[in-house]
Amino acid sequence: MKHRIASIHVKNFSSIIDEKFKLSDFTALVNYNNGGKSNILTAIKWLFSKFTLSKEDFNDTKKPIEIVGKISGINEKLLQKLDSKHRAKIKPFIIDGTILIKRKQTINSASKDINLLD
Predict the structure, then answer these.
(1) Number of compact structural domains in the chain
(2) CATH of the domain at 62
(3) Which helix (H) or strand (E) holds 24?
(4) Residue 47 is part of which domain span?
(5) pTM of the model
(6) Per-residue pLDDT reduced to its tens digit, 16-26
């Protein structure tokens, strides 16, 4: 099995208040105009990129934006492609070929940290 994003849980991001999206090898995003398709893609991009969200990205500025992504299909062959330092850091968080990655930002924070969940 190839590694892929298996699901994403989005909280308080733009028009998405609190939704879980199960993803497959091919997931079509179909909705009406302004239905949130781009918000899902931007949430995934933010989870894996180093940029800070703006105030306009918050659905409710009193709550943090929180994105949790589940990556499946992680195997030893894939891990061997990583630098040993990075491999050693993430290996304890991989359970049954899956890892959860969480990123959170408050309105007053410029946090770019990504957390691995076990």
Answers:
(1) 1
(2) 3.40.50.300
(3) none
(4) 4-117
(5) 0.86
(6) 999 999 999 89
